[in-house]
Protein: Cytochrome c oxidase subunit 6b-3
Organism: Gracilariopsis chorda
Amino acid sequence: MSEVTIQVRTAPRDRRFPTQNQTNHCWARYIEFHACAKAKGEDDPECEKFKRWYMSLCPAEWVEKWDTLKEEGRFPGPE
């Protein structure tokens, strides 16, 4: 039987968010992804990094809500 190695990673530590509450970290990574995607395209490796990070930090319900708000033009963050 061969061994399978699974690597689990999350967003790196960010000194801007020193507490255990990662709400602001989640929000910042979501915003950074969309700014990057707008500038370089969603498939850019740099942008994909931000997406992996916000997906590991943010509850799925929040991401779904924010994506819906973006589609409707009612998102409270920067365009």
Notes: The mean pLDDT is 87. The helical segments are 23-40, 45-57, 60-72. DSSP finds three helices and no strands in the chain.
